[in-house]
Amino acid sequence: MSLQDILSVVEAGSEEEALARQVNFERLPVHVAVIMDGNGRWAAQRHLPRVEGHRAGIESVREVVEGSARLGIGVLTLYAFSVENWKRPAAEVSTLMLLLKRYLRLELNTLLRNNIRFRVIGRADELSPEIRRELSVAEEKTSSNSGMLFNIALNYGGRAEIVEAVRRLISDGVRPENLDEQRFGDYLYTAGQPDPDLLIRTSGEMRVSNFLLWQIAYAEIWVTDTLWPDFRKRDLLEAILAYQKRNRRYGGINQPAVAGR
Ligand code: IPE
Ligand code: IPE
Ligand code: MG
After folding, report:
1. CA count, 13 A, side-chain hemisphere, 149
2. Which of 116, 141, 242, 250 is the most exposed place for a label (fewest CB within 10 A)?
3. Which ligand is nearest to the CA of 50?
4. Which residues constitute the domain of residue 151?
5. What average pLDDT does range 141-158 have in this prediction?
């Protein structure tokens, strides 16, 4: 994936094209994680029910998945439903699940065409059997793809993930002297994956809302006021360009600007 791949999905002469041409493909973030927020506010601004914001947000998911794959991002993780989101009205939760099911049905071919591997992170066992089946089909059908890994965080909680990891470490009989950060990471949902380099949050909130707490230790955070349903490839490109201007120090000094692949 390269400049040509992204240019083939943006309009010639557009702002996206100009942004894409500024990207340094040698220094792409390997893992991009996104807190997709602001669907409710987007709908409220239009005097629509909240679920209309979720519906509109699907187009943003399509844009970001395709844009990231074309750019050559290694891993994309989208936060779709948190363990805390069950607090919402039942009708909103069931619409979110329905939209997810529809997205998977409609987009499976796009995922296959773009060589994307799909994976769920979170407590999938607490989702309805119907949704679980749909998710498994998408995971199985894309399992041999070798391009971008697309994690969807569903019924995901960062603290829950850490507690679950500790429980499994104990039940595996891992001895304290054999435990280090690397080993601990192997017990998380993201085992074997690089940590996010870039964390994007839409709708202006300056918080992490229980997302990838362990993994974002040194992620560069980029927050935009844009609401998720308005997020497009242009915004993704802006985030990547901002990331490429950061100086990642990892607690040290004088590191060269942004460590890429
Ligand atoms: C994000 O939008 C979608 C999910 C959390 C599922 P919200 O529904 O949180 O929208 P706001 O934050 O209320 O605007
Ligand atoms: C974070 O958004 C969760 C997802 C994007 C799935 P929320 O809207 O649930 O987060 P808070 O409540 O604003 O922290
Ligand atoms: Mg929100």
Report:
1. 20
2. 250
3. 1
4. 22-244
5. 98
Of the residues 5, 85, 145, 210, which is catalytic?
85
pLDDT tens digits for 119-140? 999 999 999 999 999 999 999 9
CATH label of the domain that carries residue 207: 3.40.1180.10
Counting the structural domains of the chain, the total is 1
Instruction: Examine residue 16 and state whether it is found in any structural domain, yes or no.
Output: no
Q: Is residue 261 part of a domain?
A: no
Give the nearest ligand 2 atom to 85 CA: 9
**pLDDT beyond 80 at 255:** no
Residue nearest to atom 14 of ligand 2 (CA): 209
The set of protein residues with a Cβ atom below 6 angstroms from ligand 2 is: 35-37, 79-82, 85, 205, 207, 209
- The pLDDT of 208-234, averaged and rounded, is 98
Q: Is residue 40 part of a domain?
A: yes
Tokens found for residue 94: 């069931």
CB burial of residue 176 (10 Å; 0-12, 13-18, 19+): exposed
pLDDT tens digits, 172-196: 999 999 999 999 999 999 999 999 9
Examine residue 171 and state whether it is found in any structural domain, yes or no.
Answer: yes
